Amino acid sequence: MEIFFGLLGGLGLFLYGMTIMGDGLEKSAGDKMKKIIEVLTNHRIMAVTVGALVTMIIQSSSATTVMVVGFVNAGIMTLTQATGVIMGANIGTTVTAQIASLKISHIAPVVVGLGVGVWLFSNNKKTKNVAEIFIGFGILFIGMDFMKEAVKPLREYEGFREMLISFGKPTFTDSLMAIFTGFFITAAVQSSSATTGILIALASEGLLPIEASLPIIFGTNIGTCVTAMLSSIGANRTAKRAAFIHFTFNVVGTLLFLVCFKDITIKIVKHFSPDSAARQLANAHTLFNIGNTLILLPFAPILVRLANKVLPVNESEKRERRGVKYLDDRMLETPSIAIGQVMKEILNMGELVVDSYRTSMEAFFEKSEKLADETFQMEKIINIMEREIAEYLVKLSNTSLSGKQHEIVDGFFNTINDIERVGDHADNLAELAIFCSERKLEFSEVAIKELKLMHERAMKSYNQAILALKTGDMNIARRVVEREGEIDHMEKSLRTSHISRLNKQECSAGSGIIFLDVISNLERIGDHATKIAFSVMDSSGKF
Predict the structure, then answer these.
(1) CB burial readout 489-523, b (16+ within 10 A) else e
(2) CA-based angle 134:61:94, to the nearest 5?
(3) Among candidate residues 182, 210, 212, 219, the one with its CA nearest the CA of residue 269
(4) What is the pTM of this model?
(5) Residue 382: what pLDDT?
(6) Which alpha helices (DSSP H) does 257-402 contain, by range?
């Protein structure tokens, strides 16, 4: 029991140290995380590099893969890009094993002491972040030392030693048992680094030769897929395909190395580290993941095709309605990326409102109840989108945002309100279209011409406001603001001329009231377009 609690305590410190170190690295990286993701191209080698770098920063391949699933789900990343990042994540996670295998635990308390001292007495945020890296680094090695001490007595248990050694026997059954052992431990603790840490502790005490540890390492790589597969539950089908690719990549790699490259890997690591079983294990872990990536990277498109075959496009995907598609709670851990996704979602909502407004006016001019119903359906989606974006913005406001980022988020609240209000006016226009259709109301040619002219002005203003929001172009935003006076003047002029026609009995009273309602709604659409343009001008240089 003493061994179990010692190992558990050491593992806890190891994981805690790894988490603190990873958090410190991530905070130090800051907005660079967004830039790292943004350099992703369809170039597979670049994707692998990014996956490795991100995993080195956050110290967890599972976390990187979960992030990738989130990126795919949110539309930031394609499936082909995700495949490269997943492969790179497997390489990046080997850094933890390399660190843990070093014999520097005697300086760990000094590193922790210095790190805590700097953290307590420094007021500089960046300095505190660096101090956290050192604190985590030291605690990781203290935990490693605890685990080594805890497993020392196991050297006296002949049965335990024989069981571990049996994993290295050349029989398929023993290798399979070793792989399953690595898989189940990693799946249970949700961290391949934790399993590797335990294996290094056992290897350091002479309990686990490389012949026995290598198949267990294969199993840990498959076990780490469980986290990504769990994170894909509830995500879209593309994200599920990314998780499937991760699993397939590790399983195929394990089979390849088990059958073809196991012996040569053992010979290489023994040659470079003949006297250290811990170094042999860490090097074998690195060699396996780099080799697996080099072998399977050219076949990434085949893995993507296989995923699409196993998880084909279903009817629900084909019928996927328009709505929120870029927001994902997993993005909240990296606020700079989350803000970019909110902007994409606002533009998505803005484009839907363009369709809604255009359809409502077509319904009015054609007296089409069918087109009016389409507008009502779009309005329901717009309302849902506004609510979901607002809820996401509230969550984003409660994360660690800079002053500039808080201003951007506050501006987003106003923008989605203005876009939603344009949708409301489109809904009003659709209701007026049905009213005219049911009562067979007619308008004079002059009235129709005037309505079309004002509709074109309002539509141009709104389209340009959304374009300014998308591009940040101040000139376009200014043109929208300048046109506001023109639309206001047109509304007053058309109101006056229409009242004159009513007095001359050139059109019916029923049609006259509807005409005034339509131009009022169009003028309000122009107002909201102007407010969106002003928000673009206010946010210049912030986003």
Answers:
(1) ebbeebeeebeebbeeeebeeebbebbbebbebbb
(2) 65
(3) 210
(4) 0.54
(5) 92
(6) 262-272, 277-296, 300-310, 315-318, 335-366, 369-397
| Maximal C-alpha separation, the chain | 110
Tokens of 381: 């989606």
How many other C-beta atoms are found inside a 10 Å radius of the C-beta of residue 378?
23
Q: Kindly state the DSSP code that residue 543 receives in the 8-state scheme.
A: -
Q: How many C-beta atoms lie closer than 10 Å to residue 430's C-beta?
A: 28
DSSP 261: I
Q: Report how far residue 193's alpha carbon sits from residue 167's, in angstroms, rounded to the nearest whole number.
A: 20
Give every residue of the chain whose pLDDT is below 70, as ranges: 1, 3, 18, 22, 25-42, 57-60, 62-63, 66-67, 69-76, 100, 103-105, 144, 148, 151-152, 154-170, 189-190, 227, 231, 234-236, 314-322, 540-543
The total number of residues written for the chain in this structure: 543
User: Quick check: 428 and 379 in contact, CB under 8 A?
Assistant: no
Report the candidate in 156, 162, 257, 160 with the shortest Cα–Cα distance to residue 214: 257
Q: Cα(532)–Cα(469) distance, rounded to whole angstroms?
A: 7
Q: How far is CA 394 from CA 91, 176, 327, 542, in A?
A: 36, 49, 13, 19
Coil/strand/helix, residue 320 = coil
Q: Are 419 and 352 in contact (CB under 8 A)?
A: no
Query: 227 CB contacts (<8 Å, ≥6 apart)?
Result: 62, 65, 66, 190
Q: The tokens 């003493």 sit on which residue? A: 2
Tokens of residue 490, six digits: 């047109």
412: its two tokens: 């987003």
Question: 171 CB contacts (<8 Å, ≥6 apart)?
Answer: none
Question: What's at 525, amino acid-wise?
Answer: I
Measuring CA to CA, how many Å separate 194 from each of 224, 321, 453? 11, 42, 68
SS3 of 398-419: the string is: CCCCCHHHHHHHHHHHHHHHHH
Q: Which two tokens stand for residue 457?
A: 């002005």
Structure-block tokens of residue 132: 């956290």
Long-range contacts (CB closer than 8 Å, 24 or more residues apart) made by 226-230: 226/186, 226/187, 226/190, 227/62, 227/65, 227/66, 227/190, 228/62, 228/65, 228/66, 228/68, 228/69
Strand (E) or helix (H) holding 452: helix 445-471
What is the DSSP secondary-structure string of 368-407?
A: -HHHHHHHHHHHHHHHHHHHHHHHHHHHHHTS---HHHHH
> CA-based Rg of the chain, rounded to a whole angstrom?
31
Q: Evaluate whether 235 touches 69 at the Cβ level (below 8 Å).
A: yes
The span from the first CA to the last CA of the chain, in angstroms, equals: 56
| Residue 321 DSSP one-character state | P
Q: What is the DSSP letter of 260?
A: I
Closest CA to 204 of 282, 134, 307, 267: 282
Residues 40 and 81 sit within 8 Å (Cβ to Cβ)? yes
